Amino acid sequence: MTISADKATPLSGSPRIDRTDAMGSISAMAEAHNNWGRWGEDDVLGTLNFIDAAKRLEAAALVRTGEIFSLSQPFDTNGPQKGWRRRTNPVHTMTDTGVDAERGNQGFPHGFGGADDVIAMPLQCSTQWDGLGHIFDRGKAWNGRAAGDVVTSEGDLVTGIETAAARIATRGVLLDVGRGLAEETGRDDGELPDGFAITVDHLERTMERQGPSSTVRRGDIVIIRTGQYTRARREGWGEYAGGAAPGLSFGTAPWLHASEIAGIATDTWGFEVRPNEFDAAFQPLHQIAIPNLGLFLGEMWDPDALAESCAGDGRYDFLLIAAPLPITGAVGSPVNPIALR
C-alpha cells in the first residue's frame, strides 16, 4: 500500500462486498471501518483531527514557485444543477448598479455612487464541502449521535460547517486518475468514461505512475481528477448533476479509513461511481464515509489547471487551503479551494 498511517486498518481484514445485498454490505463495511469515539464522544471534526500544526508546517514548506490555482467551478446560472431535490443554480441579482449611480437615483450626496448585489443558491450547487451533518447511516450521524439530535429545522446543532472554518489548510495531493489509467480505459484524452469505478488498485497505480510526491499521508486532502468536468466543460453539462459518472468504488472504503486522510475531493457531482454498484442503494460510499468515518467530502472541484502544472514538473503535492464559509448550522458549504505550489 502506498500510504503512510501510524494506526492504519489493514485492507486484508475488510468485509467482502455482496452486490446482491446492499444493506448487508453497507452494515458490514460500517462495522469494520468506523471512527466513532476515536477523538472522544464530543468530537465535531472527524478526520480533520488529522490536521495538526506539524501538518500545516509540512504543507507550507511545499510552496516553491508561488504558482496559485483556484480549484473552483464558476458559481452562476449556467450550471451544473438541474433542480434535483430543489438544488438550483445560483441566482445573482444586482440591487444597486452603475445605471442607478449615473442617473443619481441612489440618494447619496456629492456624487457618491455604488453597486450592490445578492445571491440566492443552495449551499451545494457548485464546488463545495459535504459537512458531517449531511449524510446519516440508519438514523445515526457522525460519532453515533441520533440524526434528529444533530440536524433539526434550525440546522446542524452539533457539527455545523462553521466548526471547520479554520481547519482546512494542509498538504494536498492530486491523483490524476484520468491520465493515469489512459492505457486501461483506451482513452488518450485523460478522461475516465462515465460509470468507471475507481478501485484501490487504480489509486495505487496512479500514485506509482506519478512518483513519490503523490504518496498519500495522514492528514492529507486527496484530490481525484477523473476528467468528467473537463468533458462537461467541452460538451455541455448533460447529466453531470446526478447522472452516470466515474468515481470511487464502494470497495475503496477500507483505503479511505486506513490512509487517515483528512478529506477527499473529486471533479464530479457525487464523489462515488454512478450508477452505484448495488442494485438498490443510493450513494452507499457516502453512507460509510461521512457518518462512520467522519470524512470530509468535496465535490464539483476543478483540478484541470493544477493537473497541467503538476504533469509539467512531476510534483503532485502542494499547500491546499479550502476553508468553508462559517455558515452557522449548515451541513455543507461553497468553497474556493486554493492550491499553492
Shape: globular
Give the helices and strands as they follow along the chain: EHHEEHEEHEEEHHEHEEHEHEHEHEEE
Largest sheet: 9 strands, mixed
What portion of residues belong to β-strands? 15-25%
InterPro entries: KFase/CYL, KFase_sf
Region (Disordered): 1-20
Protein name: Cyclase family protein
Enzyme class: hydrolase
List the defining traits of the structure above.
disordered N terminus, single chain, 341 residues, globular, Cyclase family protein, 2 domains, alpha/beta, two-stranded parallel ribbon, 24% helix, nine-stranded mixed β-sheet, 11 helices, 17 strands, Glucose Oxidase, domain 1
Describe the model.
- The protein has helices at 22-32, 53-60, 98-102, 147-150, 177-180, 182-185, 200-210, 228-235, 253-258, 284-293, 304-313, and strands spanning 3-4, 68-70, 91-96, 116-120, 128-130, 151-152, 155-156, 169-175, 197-198, 216-217, 221-224, 247-248, 263-266, 296-299, 317-321, 332-334, 338-340.
- By secondary structure, it is of the alpha/beta class.
- The chain folds into 2 domains: 13-83 and 122-340, Glucose Oxidase, domain 1; 92-120, no CATH class.
- It is globular, with a radius of gyration of 21 Å.
- The two termini are 26 Å apart.
Compact overview of the structure:
The chain is an alpha/beta fold.
List the topology elements.
Layout: E1 3-4, H1 22-32, H2 53-60, E2 68-70, E3 91-96, H3 98-102, E4 116-120, E5 128-130, H4 147-150, E6 151-152, E7 155-156, E8 169-175, H5 177-180, H6 182-185, E9 197-198, H7 200-210, E10 216-217, E11 221-224, H8 228-235, E12 247-248, H9 253-258, E13 263-266, H10 284-293, E14 296-299, H11 304-313, E15 317-321, E16 332-334, E17 338-340
Parallel strand pairs: 1-10, 8-11, 9-12, 11-13, 13-14
Antiparallel strand pairs: 2-17, 3-4, 5-14, 5-16, 6-7, 8-15, 15-17
